[in-house]
Write a structure and sequence with these properties.
Blueprint: H1 6-19, E1 25-29, H2 38-41, E2 48-49, E3 64-68, H3 74-85, E4 96-102, H4 106-117, E5 118-120, E6 126-128, H5 134-143, E7 153-159, E8 165-167, E9 182-183, H6 186-189, H7 192-204, H8 213-226, H9 233-246, H10 254-265, H11 270-275, H12 279-287, H13 289-303
Helix pairs in contact: 1-3, 5-8, 7-9, 8-9
């Protein structure tokens, strides 16, 4: 890795954190990304598997934990390079889910991930939650919900799609139920898929998603307030992109407002209705002229 490569700054920052820590450090790898992990396999390190096979996941795709042997460990450099090369591919899981310090043994860390990953929704259904996935962590800032991680995780760093190593603020969730399963916040977690899909779409448009982080956060929060069902992914993604790229207050447009109400009630699809609108109509929405018309109508009504 060249000293003039931007990723070298990430490596140096992590080295400083590890050198200053009295606790062991580990890296969490996710084969679900289907990335070539030979750069990690070459070290012949023990892999502490997060065994999710009983929940339908193939053993070869289960995440695993590997110990980092100090700040000068070559494994650290390889994982930084791997994370860097894949950092902007937000359509697929990331191969490196972060570097963390913990007072737990690597086997206990793997077990804690398994315990945290199994959640129960409000209607009693059991879910497998990928809380460690960088895409899920990034989404937490969009929906303003906390990032959860097992007790015993001290510092947890991930590489964002902007190329910066971020300390993940995290805390333990509420107590588990009698079966040891944690309750899931389905309202916010449901928006993970459409938020990630919107990021991927921005990338396909040639945009830098990091430049739209605040707008996406507001868009997700607005979608939640409007009651737009996130499981209708096409509707949710369309709304997020329209609010970010077309107009920041698009939900106030009379026609769009009607579409959103129909989508929230299940009467019609927001994506289908918006796709039928003409290019000239969308240009008018983007111009914001309709806002002036609404204000003029309100003024006339007030003086009527």
């Amino acid at each position: 890795m060249s000293r003039y490569d931007d990723r070298f700054d990430v490596l140096v920052a992590l080295r400083d954190q590890i050198a200053a820590s009295a606790q062991p450090w580990f890296v969490l790898i996710d084969p679900m990304s289907r990335t070539d992990l030979s750069c990690i396999d070459q070290f012949n390190r023990q892999k502490h598997l997060v065994d999710l096979t009983s929940y339908g996941l193939d053993r070869a795709l289960c995440p695993y934990v590997v110990r980092v042997l100090g700040s000068r460990d070559e494994l650290l450099e390889e994982t930084v390079s791997l994370a860097w090369e894949r950092r902007q591919d937000w359509q697929e899981p990331q191969p490196v889910c972060g570097w963390l310090s913990s007072e737990l043994s690597p086997g206990s860390i793997a077990l804690s991930i398994k315990q945290m990953a199994v959640t129960r929704t409000r209607d009693g259904n059991r879910n497998l939650k990928r809380f460690y996935d960088p895409r899920v962590v990034q989404h937490a800032s969009f929906s303003k919900c906390p990032v959860y991680a097992p007790d015993g995780w001290l510092q947890w760093f991930q590489l964002g799609f902007d190329g910066n190593a971020r300390l993940v603020p995290h805390r333990m969730p509420a107590a588990a139920d009698r079966e040891g399963i944690i309750s899931s916040d389905s309202i916010h977690e449901g928006w993970v898929v459409p938020a990630v899909a919107a990021i991927a779409q921005l990338q396909r448009f040639g945009e830098r998603p990091s430049a739209y982080e605040q707008q996406l956060q507001l868009a997700v929060h607005c979608g939640i307030e409007l009651g737009l069902p996130p499981e209708n992914t096409a509707d949710a993604v369309s709304f997020l992109l329209h609010k970010v790229l077309v107009h920041p207050e698009i939900e106030r447009h009379p026609t769009v407002c009607m579409w959103l109400k129909q989508a929230a009630s299940g009467e019609a699809s927001y994506a289908d209705q918006s796709a039928e609108a003409s290019s000239s109509w969308w240009r008018d929405v983007e111009s914001g002229q309709w806002q002036k018309n609404i204000k003029d109508e309100s003024r006339e009504t007030g003086y009527g």
